[in-house]
Amino acid sequence: MMEKEELILRALEPTDVDLLYKWENDMKIWEVSNTLTPFSRHQLKLYVEQAQLDIYQTKQLRLIIELEPSQTPVGMIDLFDFDGFHQRGGIGIIIHEDYRKLGYASEALDMFAEYCFGTLGLKQLYANITINNTGSINLFEKAGFNIIGTKKAWIKTKDGFVDELMYQKLNR
């Protein structure tokens, strides 16, 4: 568990299955999470059980972003495509719409990057963000991520294809 003032990042618990079911099946965020089909509670239960395994086995880490002392979950943050040999991983974050624009994403991203660099010993983090997701672009740029490329017409949306920007932050 990582703590900073009123925010903590904590491991998934078996009691989070219903929360994940609600959030993962919210079609409004499917475009940013690259989700195409809904998740069953059974799938999510198995996922939570496997989340307790070592990051070197699963190649990913998902944490709940929670307010303290109320223990109110406000979002999730992920490390995916973890590569211990090359010391890198992708990072994604989602804040529930009721808690956006309150600084929680920025604080959680800073805490998580510090954990990835300091504890996991990563050299670099990256994020993939569609060109029209200005909120995420601003968040990652504020956190010190730099744009390193554009994947043209990379993501298919209901309105057609959009470019995806690739951001990177190096641990100096």
TrEMBL record:
Query: Which InterPro entries does the UniProt entry name for this protein?
Result: Acyl_CoA_acyltransferase, GNAT_dom
Cited PROSITE patterns: GNAT
Q: Which domain of life is it from?
A: Bacteria
Q: What residue stretches are annotated with the N-acetyltransferase domain?
A: 7-171
Q: Which SUPFAM superfamilies match?
A: Acyl-CoA N-acyltransferases (Nat)
Coiled-coil region list: none
PANTHER family named among the record's database cross-references: GNAT-FAMILY ACETYLTRANSFERASE, SPERMIDINE N(1)-ACETYLTRANSFERASE
Instruction: Please identify the protein, giving its name as recorded.
Output: GNAT family N-acetyltransferase
Q: What is the lineage of its organism?
A: Bacteria, Pseudomonadati, Bacteroidota, Bacteroidia, Marinilabiliales
